[in-house]
Amino acid sequence: PEGFRSGATHYVGNPHCKLETLRLSGCGVTEEGCASLVSALRSNPSHLRELDLSNNDLNDSGVKLLSAGLGNLHCKLESLRSVFL
């Protein structure tokens, strides 16, 4: 959904945002949502330490996008939850 993509980019990728926990369990996040999260994590240093994506349909390609994004030096994520990983 467009609202999710806009929100992910605005909050997760904003260097002034101190968001540390983001729970998106069962929110309909798909591969597109994963791409938005990765883009936000790559664009700016993030304070995000916990991300819950359980009960979403990420597919293999979404998981691969997340894996690539989490390898970024700006990413400080310590906990990722997903029943599909």
UniProtKB/TrEMBL annotation:
Keywords: Leucine-rich repeat, Repeat. Gene3D superfamilies: Ribonuclease Inhibitor (3.80.10.10). This is Uncharacterized protein. Coiled coil: none annotated. PANTHER family: NACHT, LRR AND CARD DOMAINS-CONTAINING. InterPro entries: Leu-rich_rpt, LRR_dom_sf, NLR. SUPFAM superfamilies: RNI-like. Pfam families: LRR_6 (PF13516). It comes from the Eukaryota. The lineage of its organism: Eukaryota, Metazoa, Chordata, Craniata, Vertebrata. It comes from Oncorhynchus kisutch (Coho salmon).
